[in-house]
Design goal:
3-stranded antiparallel sheet, 16 strands, 9-stranded mixed sheet
């Protein structure tokens, strides 16, 4: 699929992602840009670098409001409230933040306490994403986590006590040696803690990780399916609606920031290893900027052309990238959203859609396009239908 020209008639929402790359210890399954924290975190230097990094991108987004902020890592909760307060002051001085904006901070149960959550909440952070992964000590040890089950429970309780009405628990399944009952014990415990949102996803062995080099023994495919389906049933019974492949939310608590990704919105990405996507209607193109990954190099070069690499998304890739995101949503998307965010008419991918439909992977009409249950189960096969130059 090719097209001579993209045609953007309006701008998508714009979010902000901020990467803080340090953690206490690198987990063996983690492929994110994370680095073991030094004895003293360079908070002042890193916040200065983040502001310089942001200022460099401001000409791309003049006048556009920020619809959500997500601070990820690493373990951003390692940073002090004072450092984050200084960061937010810099953001508010340079960006237009929408009233009531969703601001999420990732937190590790092994590094937080109730007092710190209260300080974060007082700064205006109104959503936490807590990486519990499991509540069972043996499973957490196998995953290389630094917290235990009691700390995971205490972190969720601290979130409630600090005033967070919106927080996510990250929960993995398909762990080494895990059976159905062990998996369901984790899901039941997560539900009992009453988070507004649960991310429930399978452990995968990603390249360039210790687990990929030295794979642990994981459940077989049949057992994996049993664990996942039983967990999904428990979540549904408890009122958590699955709206994306691994995202389950109570009514009114879908993650705005992640929805913006899945609906092919724009986002600034600042910090070591951060990525951004910006639509430029005047130039009828989409650009991506990727920051250098090493924290020390980032601090040295932030605010200069050496700090990032910019690429223009090829016209032939735009439709595929849109589908790669939007078809993760259970309810799919409207033709209008595709035309607006991809900058091209739906007719240009009609052949690919018909192929996917003939294979039973999508349902579509002129009102909505969404994966079938089969397409959602075999999402990679569905995506193959939209690869450019097939």
């Amino acid at each position: 699929m090719t097209t001579d020209m993209l045609n953007f008639t309006s701008l998508p929402p714009l979010a902000l992602y901020i990467h803080i790359p340090w953690c206490v210890r690198k987990c063996p399954y983690c492929d994110f840009n994370s680095h073991e924290a030094p004895g003293t975190l360079p908070e002042t230097e890193y916040v200065d670098a983040l502001i310089r990094d942001l200022e460099q991108d401001l000409p791309l987004i003049w006048g556009r409001p920020i619809t959500s902020i997500f601070i990820g890592g690493g373990t951003p909760s390692l940073f002090s409230a004072e450092a984050l307060d200084r960061l937010f002051s810099g953001l508010r001085a340079r960006l237009k933040l929408l009233p009531g904006i969703e601001i999420t901070l990732e937190a590790n149960p092994g590094t937080v306490e109730a007092g710190k959550f209260r300080e974060f909440h007082a700064l205006g952070i109104n959503r936490l994403s807590i990486g519990v992964q499991s509540f069972q000590d043996a499973q957490l040890k196998a995953l290389g986590r630094i917290h235990g089950g009691r700390e995971a429970i205490a972190a969720a309780e601290a979130a409630h006590a600090a005033g967070f009405t919106d927080f996510n628990l990250d929960l993995m399944h398909g762990l080494p040696g895990q059976g159905v009952e062990q998996g369901m014990a984790d899901v039941r415990q997560a539900i009992a803690l009453q988070p507004s949102h649960i991310s429930y996803y399978q452990l995968t062995l990603e390249p360039n990780t210790l687990f990929h080099a030295r794979p642990p023994r994981l459940p077989d495919d049949e057992l994996l399916a049993d664990i996942e389906e039983a967990g999904q049933a428990l979540l549904a019974d408890a009122g958590y609606v699955q709206y994306e492949v691994s995202a389950y939310a109570k009514e009114g608590f879908r993650c705005a920031h992640n929805l913006n990704y899945w609906e092919f919105g724009d986002y600034l990405g600042i910090g070591a290893g951060a990525h951004g996507k910006i639509t430029l209607p005047a130039e009828q193109r989409i650009v991506r900027r990727a920051r250098i990954r090493n924290p020390r190099d980032f601090q040295q070069h932030a605010g200069t052309a050496e700090a990032y690499e910019e690429t223009v998304v090829k016209q032939a890739d735009v439709a595929f990238e849109f589908m790669l995101n939007a078809l993760r949503l259970k309810d799919g998307f409207t033709p209008h959203l595709f035309q607006e965010r991809a900058g091209m008419p739906l007719g240009l991918i009609r052949d690919a859609m018909r192929e996917a439909e003939s294979r039973g992977l999508i349902d579509w009409d002129m009102r909505r396009i969404k994966p079938t249950p089969l397409g959602w189960r075999f999402l990679n096969d569905l995506m193959q239908c939209f690869l450019p130059d097939r």
